[in-house]
Q: What sequence folds into this?
């Protein structure tokens, strides 16, 4: 499954109920499971030990297509806190199957970015950017991997209090502004970074063991050029 060798542990399942506070239609009465998160995976004890020694985690997320009262299925959305040096923890994703739309928003809400990615693409979430992943299809499951620091918990408060991201991606193709956000810029598009601006090339799993390629995840303060280039596109 998704190029994963061997059995997967039982996933954490995000239900539609948990998503109610962040849906475009707050009265959407659908129910049931929405997407599965398999956290802290490794293909061998050696890989797991390396990941943990470097304060990192490899996860898979599987998002079947869905229509949530007119909105594409998406993840709940969260920010990451700052690391001890005062810089937000970044994250790196890889699309394994299907297509993904990453909707990023800076904490100051001055920058909203949409990145369309397909299988093989790697996408870096820069420090300070909240993020939602959308499966913008009717018929394809999205499977993606991520590597992220083990040193923090995701923060959902901003997304819950504003009832979702700054924009909603609707199944009719409309990108609708969320009325809970007073003033936000329009969405700009960017490309997945894989192989450019210092963003590593995949497969993501093959980077396990490569300290140089993954140290930006815990020490983003040492990689300001990478993030500046990434945000300039
Ligand atoms: O936490 P959510 O907003 O539901 O997003 C889902 C994803 O978030 C993070 O990136 C985690 O590292 C993933 O394991 C998870 O699948």
A:
């Amino acid at each position: 499954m998704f190029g994963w060798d061997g059995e997967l542990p039982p996933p954490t399942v995000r239900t539609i109920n948990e998503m109610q506070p962040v849906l475009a239609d707050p009265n959407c009465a659908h129910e049931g499971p929405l997407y599965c998160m398999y956290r802290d995976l490794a293909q061998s004890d050696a890989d797991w030990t390396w990941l943990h020694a470097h304060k990192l985690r490899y996860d898979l997320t599987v998002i079947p297509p869905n229509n949530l009262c007119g909105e594409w299925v998406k993840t709940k959305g969260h920010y990451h806190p700052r690391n001890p040096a005062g810089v937000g923890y970044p994250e790196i994703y890889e699309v394994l199957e299907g297509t993904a739309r990453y909707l990023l928003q800076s904490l100051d809400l001055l920058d909203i970015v949409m990145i369309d990615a397909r299988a093989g693409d790697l996408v870096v979430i820069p420090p300070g950017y909240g993020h939602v992943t959308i499966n913008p299809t009717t018929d394809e499951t999205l499977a993606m991997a991520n590597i992220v620091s083990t040193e923090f918990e995701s923060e959902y408060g901003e997304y819950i209090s504003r009832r979702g991201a700054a924009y909603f991606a609707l199944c009719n193709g409309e990108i609708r502004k969320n009325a809970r956000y007073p003033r936000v810029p329009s969405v700009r598009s960017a490309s997945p970074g894989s192989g450019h601006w210092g963003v590593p090339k995949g497969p993501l799993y093959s980077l396990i063991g490569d300290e140089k390629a993954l140290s930006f995840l815990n020490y983003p303060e040492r990689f300001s050029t990478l993030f500046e280039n990434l945000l300039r596109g």
